[in-house]
Structure formats: structure tokens, C-alpha cells
Amino acid sequence: MSIFEQRSDRGYDEILFKDRQERMMLYRAGDVIQKVFNLYQKSKWDLEFYKVERVKDTSYQLDDNPVEKCDALYLYKSPVRPTMMGFLAPFPHTLFRDREEESALAYLSSHDSIMSMHSMVETILQGVCSKVEEVVVEPKNCRLRLIVVTPDGKQDLRHISHELFRVTNRNGEMFALDVTGAQYGYYEPVVPWVIYQRERIASINKIVAFGDVPKFTIFRTCRDELYDEILRCARPALTNALRNWQSRNDLALNRLLTFADADFVRTRDELFVQVAADLRRLIPAAYKSLISTMTAGGLERSLAALAGR
Q: How far apart are alpha carbons 171 and 158 in whole angstroms?
């Protein structure tokens, strides 16, 4: 039986029952948002890896920061350029075990998750939350670090700030909604804010209104201008895939959160299947359109730069 079907006469005070409902809806929303973002990441995957190696309890240093110690997942990059239009590569499922795949999909993608999931977060949390903010933090207590090893053996040890949503529900409770926490070994997207802040934040750089993070963030997810352009043309494909699903099913995303358990799981899984299929079609089409706007010489130079990032 779903929590939405339980009756207050079973001992639940009406107000507490409503609070519990809204909390459950938020946790469901976080699960759906994170999974959709991972599907999006797979559909635009652009890195060729030939080996993944997990090392337990290892020491590393990011830029000039203090030495840290946790498990590390080393991703060995192939010198081969992505084979699909020079941009896309098949996601290497067979290289990963357990939840390592989720960690790889989240790698260096917190800013892109804020940018790409803005429309979905706004839609699915409508009526569930009173406020959504965007937060830039310095993480701590990482359980896992992903380290890319280039073909010449160099390790990517740059320090990158982390970005996430902070959500306040209608009774004033605050939660972290961290779509890409898996890159640090944390796989649950929704965590009470007081716990998240105490256990996972070394310092807070910025807390801004929903939609304002891009004005303050100086880290460029893409590492070069071409990759910026690639992300800009991929994001509308995700928005369109979600709109297509809502139109086909005559169902708003936030309505999904109120379903009884079995109906929620069934409809959620159908959403994942349909969105994945649309992304497989829409993102290559968007990339083809991008390519068509470039001159042949400019494209070759851009692809060479992209391969070397």
C-alpha cells in the first residue's frame, strides 16, 4: 500500500501525515531526476576509456589542497577519438561493477546537472516545495574520487567545486538534492540539509536563487569552447524528451509523484524507457545540426581540440 493510501485514523495526525507525504514525494522526485540525468549523460557520452581500476584507501592531492585519502576509481583514457560524429562514444558498461557506472556518469558534471535539469526540477517539484536554491560548495569526506589518466600517463587532479540544489518543502524542512553526488561515492540524491551540511560540506561558496548559479560559476564543465557549444545543443534534447513523454501520456511530471507504489514504479520505468529512446534520437540530430553550421576546416580543428581536452 502506498503512503498516499494510508488513512489518518491509523494514528497519523493529519498535519504530520501531509508532511510525510510531501517528504516521500521529494525523495521520489530526487530518484527520478537523478536517473533521467544519468540517461542524458549516457546519451551524450564522449570519453573513450579502455580500463577502469579501483584502488582502496589511497592518498591523492588535488591542486594545492591538503592530501586526502579514500577509494579511487582510475579511468584510463584511450587515445582514440570518439567514433560517432567525432563527439559521441558508446558508454563502456562492461568496465564498471556495482555502482561505479553511476559514479562515472556523475564525474565533473555537477554544473551540467544544474544547467540541464533546471526545467525538470522546476516542473517535477511544482506543488511539492516552497523554494529551490542552487548551492556551490567545497566537498569533504569523499568516499570515492574519480581520476582520469590520459594516454601519456598524466592524472587529472584538478580541484573542482561542487554544485547542487537546496530544496525547502512547504513546512520549512530543507533538503540537499545532489544529482551528481555519486562521483564522491554518495548515491542517494536527497539528504536532509542539516546532515548533508555537517557531513559533506567543507565550506559554502555561494547560495543563490534557482537559475542563478551560471552567473557565478567560473568552472567550465567543457574545458573548451566547442564542448560548451555541444552541451548547449544537447540540453534542449533533454527538455524535448521530457515534454514528449508528458504529451504522449497526458501526464505532468509532478503528478507521477502522487501515484500508489506499484503505479509509480511502473510509470517511472516507462518514463525512463521513453526518455532514453528519445535522447538516442534527438541528441545525434542536434549534433548533426551543430556540425552543419561549422566549416570543414573549422570542424577539423575543433575536433582535434576536443580530442585533446
A: 39
Which cell is 2 given?
A: 502506498
Instruction: For residue 225, list its beta bridge partners.
Output: none
Which whole number is the average pLDDT over 8-35? 78
CA atoms within 13 A on the CB side of 215: 8
d(CA 131, CA 61): 36
Cell 508528458 belongs to which residue? 246
68-77, strands of its sheet edge to edge: 49-60, 68-77, 144-149
- From CA 49, how far away is CA 47, in angstroms rounded? 6
CA 267/CA 178 separation, integer angstroms: 23
CA 274, CA 245: separation in Å to the nearest integer? 7
Which residue type occupies 148?
Answer: V
Distance of alpha carbon 48 from alpha carbon 76, whole angstroms: 8
Output DSSP code: residue 82. P
Query: Is residue 7 very low, low, confident or very high in pLDDT (cuts 50, 70, 90)?
Result: very low
- The rounded distance, in Å, linking the Cα atoms of 84 and 305 is 16
Name the nearest CA neighbour of 38 among 98, 101, 97, 132: 101
Residue written as grid cell 525512463: 272
Q: What is the mean pLDDT of the chain?
A: 85
Grid cell for residue 169: 518543502
The identity of residue 54, as a single letter, is R
CA distance linking residue 309 with residue 293, whole number of Å: 22
- In the prediction, which pLDDT does 101 show? 96
Helix axes 296-307, 225-249, angle to 10 degrees: 90
CB-CB neighbours of 125 under 10 Å: 25
pTM of structure: 0.86
What local confidence, expressed as pLDDT, does residue 221 receive? 42
What's residue 40's pLDDT? 96
End-to-end Cα separation, the chain, in angstroms: 51
pLDDT the model gives residue 18: 67
